[in-house]
Specification:
Alpha-Beta Plaits, three-stranded antiparallel β-sheet, disordered C terminus, hydrolase activity, hydrolase, endonuclease activity
Length: 749
Amino acid sequence: MIRYRNLDGEERRISVFDYCGQKKMGDSEARMLRRRLQALPQYIRRYYELRLTTIEQNQGNKKASMWLKNTFGRFVLPRIDDVNGKYLPPGALPGPLFDLRDDFNRIPWAGKRELKKLSYRLADRLTTELISEVNHQVERHGDYEFAIISGFGRAGWLITHLNMTAPGWQAYCKEELSAEDALRGAARIESPSWWLRRLRRLHDQWREHLMVAAGYVSKKAKPYCSEPCLKEWSAQKKANREYINAHELEDKETGERISLADKVNGSVANKNIRRAELMARMRGFEDLAKAEGLVGEFYTLTAPSKFHSMQRSGKRNNKYNGSSPRETQRYLCNVWAKVRAKWKREGIRTFGFRVTEPHHDGTPHWHALLFFQPEDVDFARAIFRKYALKVDGNEKGAEENRFMHVPIDEQFGSATGYIAKYISKNIDAHGMDGETDDESGELLTEMSARVSAWASRWNIRQFQQIGGAPVTVYRELGRLRDRDLWLFPEIVPAQIAAGQYDWAGYVTAQGGPLVPRDLLRVRLNYEITENGNDYGDDVSHITGVYSPFEPASSVIYTRTTSYQIVRKVEENADRGVAVGVDLALSGGPAAPRSSVNNCTREPRKSKKTAVSSTVKADHAVSKAAVTDEKIWEGVGFEKMTRKQRRAFNQHLASQCEKPRSVVESAIDIKPDRARYITDFAESCGMSLTGMEAQALAAGEVITLGGKRWYAQADGAIRDAGRSDEEIKSGLMSRVYQLAHTNRHQFGQE
């Protein structure tokens, strides 16, 4: 209460709510729910805020409070809390990570910059703890292998408090982790880029999971995936296409270049090729089944109702347990694994295809087209039904919806025709113009993009072959169709079939649709590169095919050229792209490593200066620097590439007031800076060449005498310390040296 005296000297009291012109809500629970609603991310609370405001304006505060308690607080908020509980760190964090708790709690709100900062902070903390533990164990025992494993265990233990697991953590808990594997895991833990990828995936799935739980993904809102998910997927596809169009493949030996876009468009990344290949493989299986007298069955497997956030009608499902689509997919995979294991124990063999697609609320379900021996059909069906209904099999509608089977009848269409719709629907809806989706009621041509975005967001494999020969060997043999080579006799039939796009002939040449993997007649040949990536892993690359009957003499190399991706060399830059000053200069006291110079700015000038006025007359300036505004007339901003947008922004910035002359400072300061660096080096007894002094002046880090050095703004040279790569390689060298010493001592004993 606020106390005051009026003009007559009488004491008065007024509440804060009356003073602010607001009505006090007597219900503390409603006030708490309002605070909880305001604390939610904007993309979650926007509908519920609008709903609350509408009820409050039309029906009053009492009805609004009832809606908060009976709807939002009873059904919506528990869902959101359950979802957050699956991602938030459980309990208190250890000391080294304690101040990162708020950052993890705010991941659903975070942007790209916040995630990048968190990845660096997390990598730094864990690296410090890991190295500290390694040094402690080395000083204590002198065993480098044990020290590396112990350091990994310390970092992995900290990671478990973040509701995550370190790579190789299961092997560590089982005491099966080697020192080399621990070192590889430590390299990942110390890498900010590895953490950034992991945090981005966590952020994307956490946010999408919240939108699923809050009801933003359904037939009454947006089917299959949320609107932000679709926009981000579309933007990423556009960025990928721009990158592909801006780069080429260069032969590492000859320097010859070919189009990267042509290679991508000629692979299974092309939707038309992927769809045609899937249909050809399915039709090949059907032809093999007819030749062998097998029977086809079309199965549909659906998860229990507790995995669905929405009912079929679009209403809220109150049985929902907070599972994400990825968790539902894991449940379906477990059911299928049990079915396959039981079939194998009973001697039932099968082959075919499986398609995963979402319900309107994003919950996945399976469609499978399988072929059996006629005498095994009923038994196989009963086994599948048993495991499909093992969880909550007595709930209402389970018998009708959880497992459905349709025997393939040639009178109503071929086996491939049963699954062709699902293959096309989940790729690009080719040939389905005017058809509507059973789940959402929308046009299939409009829903295919949402399905692809859904699969990308949750990392769900949409198509999977069951049984048969591997498709990668089929593709590698197809690369030989235009080459005149001598082939091993066991490879020839499979190569001829693959060259003619004959999937049935290829599978037959490999041993039939039910051939075990260890009896395949043609297999992939790999080339293994030790320490082939930044984490010290052994990386395997496909080089060709071979026959296991003569592994050494039957190898056929299908990949004989090594390429690298390089940027296109353009003779004439596209109009409106190369805007700005075209000078091979570094700017300011220290040249920035990014497009932004963070050095102290010079005093602001009073007069506006054109771009050309910042360059001295004896330096060449590109014509694009003074491009007239007419060049941008009629150019749609949405149709511009990223490169063109950056150029357009530079063009706009050139018309504004310049805080300083960037190019002028680069021309005037850089020679003096190099001379200062040379003088400082001579005073310290160091000898620098002209190139080394110029590199330090440009902000580079150079290596002299086994140490890394950098130059400050005043020309002083300082020790840059060891790089992350040197630290990792040093640890690995110590482990290898210790292992070699131990083996040598063991041999002497």
